[in-house]
Design brief:
It contains 11 helices and 19 strands. The protein is α/β, with parallel strands linked by helices.
């Protein structure tokens, strides 16, 4: 079986090998034939060590495919079913789940410490307990979410992470008010999804901020009313909000410097929504007076900030109705053997989302 592996944290490229076999199949597990997977920036962050992940590992967590086998006790799916991969499944029983904050359930993180693969050199982990840059993967059954027959695998894969994260940040976490002013800093697949979510909620002004011109142009097609480079943000704040600041600012980069700029761009009493996943040692600073005096809400948004299964269903319904554009997010397509081309497309910013067809 083929899979793309990162041998050591910090390496720039993956190696595609054909000597993998899945491991860990048994009660409560399923084996999935991966058909499509997206490259998310979190995969690159795990490769560089920004996000903690044991290695060697197979990246990929935004995937979809078909069930090959089910273990004992698995009843919600059967061989042949079409599923998307949920990298953060909820247990339904912990305090977070009982409070309705399924996105904060820690049960899924246990999967990250259990190998998904084996090859002659030893065990290999799957990123976030999934590892979808492979022809097959074995995951906890709760990671396999059935999808309707009319949802293509590439669309389902995007819903499994980037779309759910971005839409949810605008709809669930921020609950953007109609007529509001919005700025989105970082306009890859997640940022574009946040723009679409803000548009759905009726935002009057949506300013897309990104250093890459092609992404700025794409943001306008997806609902942004203005698209600017980062060095133009102060002028946009002055011209659009008379210097007061935006009602909602989404930080979708995952860096303290960007988050600090987003905070300064948010009006007093407004909301900063932190969507980007950053490093453990990257600290964001505030002084106690500004926190008290400005009364700006700082709202982290984990995986869209809501019930993930309900968010999947909502995204599918909105896509069917033509209210959101998901196919347009896929700007590039490659085969598994071309995975390093996809990584370069992500690093240079030329891609919103690259679909890896497996």
């Amino acid at each position: 079986m083929r899979a793309a592996v990162l041998h050591e944290i910090g390496q720039d490229k993956l190696e595609v090998l054909d000597d993998f076999e899945t491991t860990g199949f048994g009660p409560g597990k399923v084996k999935i034939r991966v058909r499509a997977t997206g490259l998310c920036h979190s995969d690159l962050s795990a490769m560089s060590g920004v996000l903690p992940q044991p290695g060697p590992f197979v990246p990929g967590h935004e995937g979809a495919g078909e069930i090959l086998e089910v273990g004992d006790g698995v009843t919600h799916v059967k061989p042949g079913d079409r599923v998307l991969v949920c990298w953060l499944p909820s247990c339904g029983e912990c305090p977070a789940c009982r409070r309705g904050q399924q996105q904060l359930c820690l049960a899924g993180f246990v999967n990250a410490g259990v190998p998904n693969y084996r090859r002659s050199g030893g065990d290999v982990f799957g990123f976030a307990g999934t590892g979808t840059f492979a022809e097959e993967t074995v995951v906890d059954a709760r990671c396999a979410v059935p999808i309707p027959d009319d949802v293509p695998f590439d669309i389902a894969a995007l819903i499994g992470c980037g779309v759910t994260t971005g839409l949810g940040a605008a709809i669930n976490t921020a609950d953007v008010a109609a007529g509001a002013s919005v700025a989105v800093i970082g306009c890859g697949g997640v940022g574009i999804s946040a723009i679409q979510g803000a548009k759905l909620k009726g935002a009057a002004e949506i300013v897309a901020v990104d250093p890459v011109q092609s992404r700025r142009e794409a943001a306008l097609r997806f609902g942004a009313t203005k698209a600017i480079a980062p060095d133009e943000l102060d002028d946009a704040k002055q011209n659009i909000t008379a210097g007061e600041g935006f009602d909602y600012v989404f930080e979708v980069v995952g860096k303290s410097a960007t988050a600090r700029k987003a905070y300064e761009t948010t009006r007093r009493g407004g909301s900063l929504i932190v969507v980007g996943a950053g490093a453990l040692d990257d600290h964001l600073q505030f002084n106690m007076f500004e926190l008290f005096f400005d009364e700006k809400r700082i709202l982290p948004s984990m995986y869209g900030g809501g019930d993930v299964l309900a968010s999947y269903e909502r995204a599918i319904n909105l896509w069917r109705a033509g209210r959101i554009d998901l196919a347009g997010l896929i700007t590039h397509r490659v085969q598994l053997g071309e995975i390093n081309e996809a990584i370069e497309q992500m690093r240079t910013g030329v891609a919103l989302r690259t679909c890896i067809e497996i």
